[in-house]
Amino acid sequence: MIADCKILNRAALTQRLVAKLRDEAVVAGIGNTNFDLYAAGHRPQNFYMLGSMGLAVPIALGVAMAQPQRGVIALEGDGSILMSLGCLSTVAMVKPRNLTIIIMDNGIYQITGKQPTSTQSTADIVAISRASGIASSFWIRDEAHFDELIDRALGDGGPTLLAAKIDDQPAVTQTVRDPALIRNRFMKGLGTGRGGALDA
Amino acid sequence: MGWAESCLDTLKENDVRLVTYVPDNVLTPLIKCANADNYFISVCTTREDEAIGMVAGAWMAGLRGCVMMQTSGFGTLPNALASLLVPYGIPAILIVSERGTLGEFNLGQTLVSRTMRPTLDSIAMTHHTLTDEKTMPFVVDRAIKQAVATQTPVALILSPLLTGGKVFKP
After folding, report:
1. ipTM above 0.95?
2. Is residue A200 included in any domain, yes or no?
3. What residue segments make up the domains of chain B, in order of their start?
4. B47 CB near a chain A CB, below 8 Å?
5. How far is CA A85 from CA A124, A133, B50, in A?
6. Is A28 part of the contact surface with chain B (CB cutoff 8 Å)?
């Protein structure tokens, strides 16, 4: 239930997630979502989006299908997922066991001036996700509940969607905006780079 | 062998396994054959930009893919092309069945189709229009090889001259 949710902080929750990761790929949506992933300490398996709002989940789904043995996490905001709700039904249909979606829901388009999203008043992302066919969709009650849910998602398999109610704090830093570099580093992190000696 | 089988053979020869699509009448033989062939991993998506995202993620993780759509579906893509595929250098293969020309009966299709090539040109995305079965394998093969080698996306536009298009039946 949304009403039971403690308001968390995105940066702190992202750090909590990153501390648990091994070689999982993380695809983070535009703006604060990927800024906080970057701020939590760059990992070679991180992909930062600099545009294409709403495509974090589809990109993560593509990674998950290409590398079924690797855990894959999509980090997305409420505004972004509202833009592309159809992708949740695609995830449910494809059923990638290695995909976990985490929605940071602050009920606002934080980066553009805090305009309210529909989750502030009416929409329930977890209910939408369940109705799209992702049975393992949960609101995160607090930090301990997050630990329990993410351990289960990374261990037992998904697809899983976890949503957190978060505060309205902006990110503390910004990701380096170099798409070619981001892609090359990500591919190296996934073992698909072709840099050869250039990657040494 | 029809144009659809020939096209899929060329995709196979180039290790393009992931086939994402938003359904289209003209593309039906292509989608049907891809769905029936275990080599391909076919996924019907809800929107074309979603398919672009999937193919981008899959390619970065080592699986080549294509996106099939009709012209009006292409019309939803400029942001995904200009802020994902092109700047990140991702060789997605777009296969677009061309509506809006050579006997089009829907004015909406006609207008949206006029935005397609100018959009592609404005972001310097390579595109080829396929008009006959004889040259198609060569064009598709070389287009994929160039996309992968130079890490740039490419659009293959299937003209009604190749597919027969969709005709008005009163």
Report:
1. yes
2. no
3. 3-163
4. yes
5. 12, 12, 10
6. no
